[in-house]
């Protein structure tokens, strides 16, 4: 097994020993779906949402929850805990590079996040008859780009923070705006036009997720912006990474 393979396997085992993040990542989007889905009126078409059901347009925002929780809370906390406990200082004497360590963190947390998204989409389809994305390829591409772009922001916080609390504080700087722009706190169709336009390009891509879902055209520039966040954020995290 390669160095990265051993590292990723170890990180996966350690993550499973902290079931709170696994539970949040896998179950939280589905739990929120169930809570909102059984509220009267959310499964009925509305003029305020362009004739769509509230639930149909809100499912992409549940994807935002899954990615933001793992990327902006799970990853920074895990890396900062290693730094706080001196684990990173010991790793610095091994062949493990910052890029390998951060990539392993992204991989194991991505598996959890994508599992949560898949479970939520299955529940939405089976329990509330939410239609599948009309442009599935665009939807999958946006999910992947959105995941890496959000996780890259989490990696920056993880690379800088010396303590777990510090990592959470740094990540919160972008966590709440991403949740707001992603329509988690208030459905995107009800947001002011300027806020919706800003959110259309913000990670993890709530607007292109929604456009792919209902069959509207996804703007190529949105993919470019998400890719720029993904590449730029990851490169910045590696550059700023500190073992201590």
Automatic annotation (TrEMBL):
Subcellular location, principal: membrane
Top-level taxon of the source organism: Bacteria
Annotated Gene Ontology cellular component terms: ATP-binding cassette (ABC) transporter complex
Keywords linked to the UniProt accession: Antibiotic resistance, Cell membrane, Membrane, Transmembrane, Transmembrane helix, Transport
Membrane topology note: Multi-pass membrane protein
InterPro entries: ABC-2_transporter, ABC2_TM, ABC2_TM_bact-type, ABC_2_transport
Tagged with keyword Nucleus: no
Family as reported in the entry's similarity comment: Belongs to the ABC-2 integral membrane protein family.
Record's protein name: Transport permease protein
Lineage: Bacteria, Bacillati, Actinomycetota, Actinomycetes, Pseudonocardiales
């Amino acid at each position: 097994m390669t160095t990265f393979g051993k590292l990723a396997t170890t990180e996966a085992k350690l993550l499973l020993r902290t079931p709170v993040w696994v539970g949040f990542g896998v179950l939280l989007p589905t739990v929120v779906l169930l809570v909102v889905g059984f509220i009267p009126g959310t499964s009925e078409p509305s003029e305020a949402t362009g004739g769509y059901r509230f639930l149909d347009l809100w499912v992409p925002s549940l994807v935002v929850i899954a990615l933001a929780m793992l990327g902006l809370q799970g990853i920074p906390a895990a890396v900062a805990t290693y730094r706080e406990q001196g684990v990173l200082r010991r790793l610095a004497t091994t062949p493990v590079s910052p890029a390998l360590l951060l990539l392993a963190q992204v991989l194991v947390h991505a598996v959890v996040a994508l599992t949560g998204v898949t479970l939520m989409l299955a529940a939405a389809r089976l329990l509330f008859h939410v239609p599948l994305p009309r442009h599935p390829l665009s939807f999958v591409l946006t999910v992947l780009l959105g995941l890496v772009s959000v996780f890259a922001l989490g990696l920056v916080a993880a690379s800088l923070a010396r303590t777990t609390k510090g990592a959470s504080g740094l990540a919160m700087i972008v966590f709440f705006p991403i949740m707001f722009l992603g329509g988690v706190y208030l459905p995107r169709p009800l947001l002011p036009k300027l806020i919706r336009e800003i959110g259309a390009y913000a990670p993890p891509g709530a607007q292109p997720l929604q456009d792919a879902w209902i069959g509207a055209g996804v703007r190529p520039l949105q993919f470019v912006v998400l890719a720029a966040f993904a590449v730029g954020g990851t490169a910045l995290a590696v550059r700023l990474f500190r073992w201590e």
